[in-house]
Here is the input.
Amino acid sequence: MTTPLTQDIKAAALELGFDRVGVSDAEPLREAERAILERIEAGHMDGLRWFTAERARLATRPQELLPGAQSILALSASYLGQREAPEVQAGEPRGRIARYAWGRDYHDVLKELARELVGRIEAIAGRPVKARFFVDSSPLAERAVAERAGLGWFGKNTMLLLPGASSWAFLCEVILDLPLEPDRPVKKSCGACQRCLDVCPTGALVAPGVLDTPRCISFLTIELKDRIPRHLRPLMGSWVFGCDDCQEVCPVNRRALPARIAALRAYDDEAAFPRLVPLLEMDDPAFRARYRGTPVMRAKSWGLQRNACVALGNLGDPAAIPVLASALVDASRHPLVREHAAWALGRFEAPRARQALDAAWLAVDAESDLRHELELSLAGAA
Ligand code: B12
Here is the structure.
């Protein structure tokens, strides 16, 4: 029997727009700590400099994150919006943005809701409560908390899979100094299915439940603030921000819950499948005007344009050659955009692409990284 306090708080969370709510105790998450340390040790978290053993320790100790913590509310919010891929027109190559980033920044949306929920919890409890909420950006092992609170199970793609609600869902947690009644983990698993492991273009899912971050397209397009390893570029398809390949093939996601929170289900063609030529021509103010308030800001304009070059190189639409050639020689561009433009041009057979590479080779400093990239591209170009 669930206590009335727990029941009323859960009802308030659902009423506010969260789709699932469960309760976990606030004891250390020892299994999760062990798994995370193992991943760090094996190099699977390389590239995320902030993801340290110290962070893992803190992320699995809710009572250190909120002294006096007694329980954790684990919440989920679906971000599954409508999706109608626009028809691809020759001469108008389009990239792909991961679904979670189509709408408003979920950190803002869910933190607002969590704040409101805490207000309601105080009204229900009849006293001020100590509370701290988490959405992605702070150190708490969110999937592990949600798993313990019975929201879902760890998929082989490392996503938390929520029965009946899919993995197209953000997680959000509220640590509380209230004694609530904990739920039990769900008893489900992926069974023999391993479509996600098979489909990952870069082979980043190296074993069930183990993601090699440095190879994950989501990492490469969002978190990596450097050049993308050359051998991975051809495998990235047209993703320019995040990646959904391992979720799109997941059979659990056939029974998904549409987003109830309007700000999370926004869809328009440009947000999901941006045209890459104008994207590469965009200056900083235009980038900010278009992406302010969305998760895409995290990539910064040069990062998104670096990714756009890779996607254009992979798509192979010759309409991209002039804009790539112009980015290559534009000294006001970020050096990595120019390098990736060189790589992309090297993927085209067209003489125009070769000419652009030759001309740039003559013009750039012999010792520069760009010259090196040009040499590699020229060596590989037809
Ligand atoms: C760092 C991070 C990333 C990094 C690294 C991913 C990674 N390897 O964890 C990058 C940038 C690559 C990334 C990508 C994405 N992320 Co992210 N990310 C995070 C963050 C900040 C930390 C995750 C973490 O602790 N990782 C360490 C690893 C080791 O922990 P874990 O993946 O949770 O693994 C657990 C299980 O696998 C389990 N386990 C242990 N042994 C075994 C064995 C088996 C067989 C199995 C099945 C499981 C299992 O134990 C681990 C510990 O609990 C969280 C938010 C947070 N604070 O928790 C969001 C979070 C995980 N990301 C999220 C999202 C949406 C994404 C993307 C889908 C975005 C996109 N479309 O591009 C992708 C998905 C890629 C993927 N397949 O994971 C959501 C996931 C929601 C959900 N339903 O699971 C989170 C929870 C943010 C949120 N609040 O909603 N992310």
Summary: Residues 1-90+103-233+245-258 form one domain. The chain has 17 helices and ten strands.
